[in-house]
Every structure is written in C-alpha cells, then in structure tokens.
Amino acid sequence: MVPILAPEQSATHDVTNQAPALAPYDASDDAALLEGLRREGGGRAEDDIRRLGRLAGGAEAQEWGEQANRHEPELRTHDRFGNRVDEVAFHPSWHRLLGTAVAEGLAAAPWADDRPGAHVVRTAGGLVWGHTDAGHGCPTSMTYAAVPALRKQPELAAVYEPLLVSRVYEPGLRVPSGKRGLLAGMGMTEKQGGSDVRTNTTAASPTAEPGVYTLRGHKWFTSAPMCDVFLVLAQAPGGLSCFLVPRILPDGSRNTFRIQRLKDKLGNRSNASSEPEFDHTVAWLVGPEGQGVKTIIEMVNCTRLDCVMSSATLMRKTLVEAGHHTRHRSAFGALLIDQPLMRNVLADLALESEAATTLTLRLAGAADRALRGDAQEAAFRRIATAVGKYWVTKRGPAFTAEALECLGGNGYVEESGMPRHYREAPLLSIWEGSGNVNALDVLRALGRAPETGEALFAELALAHGADARLDAAVLRLKDRLRDLRDPETGARRLVELMALVLQGSLLVRHAPRAVADAFCATRLGGDWGYSFGTLPGSADLTTILDRALPDTTARG
C-alpha cells in the first residue's frame, strides 16, 4: 500500500537553479564611480561613499525601498473633524529613506560646504543611495536646487537657507523657523502649458507689505506636497515671477494649499505628485518681478544634473541585478554569464552604464567648479548638462528593459524589483524638460552663448589623437554645426552626436583600453547593431565584465 502523506509533507518539486537574493551587496562597488569621484575632486569622501554603498545594498535598506513603493502615499484632505488639512501620509520606510538621504548630505548640504568637490560628493552619494528607491530623490533634488534660486532674494535666503542645508530630516507641517531642517518643493508647470511656463495663468497680486503677494491658480505637477516650502511661478503685474510659498505661515496658520488629487503615475510611486490649488495663498517674491525664468535657471541646471544621475543610477542598479542573476542561473548546460551571447549583452550594457556614470561625475565636477567661479567650466556645464540630460535619460528605458530581459520571466514579476525600475526610467527624460526641450536648449546655448560650444570642443580636444574613430566623429560634429540648414528638425541628431563624442572622449581619457575601444568601435565607429548585445567580435568582453560586475558568486 502506498503511504498517504499529510499535506505539509507533500512536495511536488525541489526549488533549484534560482539566484539567491542579491542583498546584501555593496552599491559603491563600481570602479567607474570611485575613479570619477577621485578625479573630479571628491576623493576625500571615498570612505563615506563606500559606507553608504554598503548601507544602500543592505537587506534592510532594500526592503525600505520595496515597502515605500508597495505602500504608496495617501492624500488626506480633511481631518476627522472636517477641517481642511491637505496632508499626505507616507509609509515609515519612506521616512527612513528620506531621513538617511538628508543625513548623508544628499539634499542641500553641499551649499554649506566650502571645500572643492562638495557637489561631486553629493552626486556620488546619489549614485549609490539611489539603489534603494528613486522616488525620495525628488524632494532631495528640489531642496538642493532651491538654494541658488532663493539666493536671488538675500533676506529670504538668510531665513531659510540654514534650514534647507541642514542634515536633519524633520517631517510634519510646522512653522518653518521652528524646525531644525526643511525640504523644498516646486510648482512650475500648469495644465495648459507644461514646459512652456510662460503661458502660466496663476496670478500673483501684491499686498500692502513689500515683497508679499497672494496667489490664485492651479498647478499641474507639484511633487512632494509635504515639503515645507515651495518655489512657484506666477504672473505678477510685471510678468512671470518666482515666489516662495510656505505650507505654514509665520503665525502658525496654514497657508492655502489645497491638494486636489495625487497623480496616478506610471512610476515614481513612492513619491507623491500633486495638483495644488492656490486661493489667496501668501507668497514672497524671489528675484525681480518679470524675471521668473531667469531666477530659476540655476535651479534647472541642478535638477537636470540629478536627472542624469538618477538615470545612471538605474542603469547601474539593473546591470548589477542582471549580472547577479546570470552568475547563478544555468540554461542549456552552462551558467548564463558563461554563454557568449549573454556575455555580449551584459558587456554592452556595462559600456553604456560606465559611459553614463563617467559623464554624470564630469558634469558634477563642472558644476562644482562653475559655482566656484570657473568661467570655462560654467560654459561647459551650460551646454554639456543639457546634452547629458537629453542622451542619458533617453538611454535609460531601453537599458532597463534589456537588463530586465536578462532575468527572463523572473524579471517580469514585481518581486524581482525590475518592473519598478523599468517604470521609473521614462520619468527622467520627461522631468525638467523632455527630450525636445533639452535638444532645443542646446541650440539656444550655441546661438546665444558661443562660448559654450567653444568649451565643449576644448573638452573634446583633450582626447585628440587617442582614437581615430573619436577624432573622425568630432570632425563630423564640426561639419554638422557648420551646416545647420534646418537646425530644429535635426536637433536630436546633433545632440546625440555631441553626447556620444563627449562620452567617448571621457572614456578614451579615463577608462581602460578595452572599455574605450569597444565604446568607440560601436557608438562612434558604427560597428554595432540596433540593440544591446551586438558588440563586435573584437570587443574584450572579459575585461569589460570583470571591471563592471561586482563578484556575487559566493551567494550560491
């Protein structure tokens, strides 16, 4: 007689050939990142970046990211008594993520640090801490970017800047001056115009008190509505102007900030994006009337850099996940990572990731030096940030999709985390100006500030003679700039070539020969297909992969 097993004793199969959990791992175990940190002036912080990388890759922090996205923010327009409160409730994991980011100086802390490389250190920190969750990077980015705009109004900066640069995260709506640290949000776009902010209809009316106005209108995308203060664009009598709007007024009363709804977004689900309504909302003028766009231009440079950084972070995170999976998963008699075509895919992704990380840190270095008065770096930053924002964020969605595919069906389920990263990727191309906006901004920079083009070619000249394919691409770029018959129609092709020659020049100068050679052969020399995994047979896949992928083989 066949024995009957109790249900708990039944087993239809054993679980085999599955990769173990990636965490714990070191998110800073990235040669391109650490080399760029040292090269761009932030080497003194390497121990801190390594510590933060281990924390970011730890099981606890990875769980924070998962929980913050699984338990999305909830809008509470009224309290139990019927009073309007317009608050957003977040899961405790969100607060842990954001609290750590602020404490580690990833918000506005660099503005209080006079040492060279302070902004590079922050960017490197974002490249590793972003392995946890992308959503909470929104309020830290806006807080970082708010400081230079606020400095256009010194009396306001004197009050708010010391609290914005603080490393203390103190959630909850209270009088700003009574808190130990503040976060800033932004309300720029409206439904009728989007990036065309000059079409804004929110009206700003001056009061009897100098510099104080009241706002009336509606904003279409205002992220992190639980921030303490917001920079807002509105139409004053003198034209489009920038204003500071606190959630809580100095007398302790709530400013009118009616949250109509939270956006139901494709990704970035841990972060609340809202539509606030202003109705006699008290605001303080930042910069001159009619100079709203000019006032926020430095803010735009900062947030665009963060878009590049976040895209590079997503690339690196998903590459690490793909590499880990393929090191432990077998198919057709061999580990996936040992199979030639998979190695080609991973190596191609590794090239893209290193190019994105290297460019990100170069842009951060330019920002740091420009903010310290280097005119050449300021000109380079002006054009290169827009170029990098266009290209790196455009590469993100295709990259994350390919990395997800390395996991096969295992990557298509939510538990893997890969769908979350895939949904996040398109945001970085849209936020702070879509691809077209950034491409056209490059044309404007070339036309209105010729020194920006000169600075770009001075940077490219540093690699002249090191690779014939790079030199030929630079000549093509010069020819294209001389023959701009229909510049707007061809803007994307122009900016794409700029981005590729810039990335190529950086890799030729700073990366191992195997990396630079494969990049130039494919992205500049045309020996490449139309998807990742089409590197030529001459590419040194082993060297590229050994450099790019952290060793997680001990997990199995």
From TrEMBL:
It holds the Pfam family AidB_N. Keywords: FAD, Flavoprotein, Oxidoreductase. InterPro entries: Acyl-CoA_dehydrogenase-like, Acyl-CoA_DH_CS, Acyl-CoA_Oxase/DH_mid-dom, AcylCo_DH-like_C, AcylCo_DH/oxidase_C, AcylCoA_DH/oxidase_NM_dom_sf, AidB_N. Residues 186-280 form the Acyl-CoA oxidase/dehydrogenase middle domain. Its cofactor is FAD. It comes from the Bacteria. Residues 290-446 form the Acyl-CoA dehydrogenase/oxidase C-terminal domain. Residues 17-171 form the Adaptive response protein AidB N-terminal domain. Belongs to the acyl-CoA dehydrogenase family. This is Acyl-CoA dehydrogenase family protein.
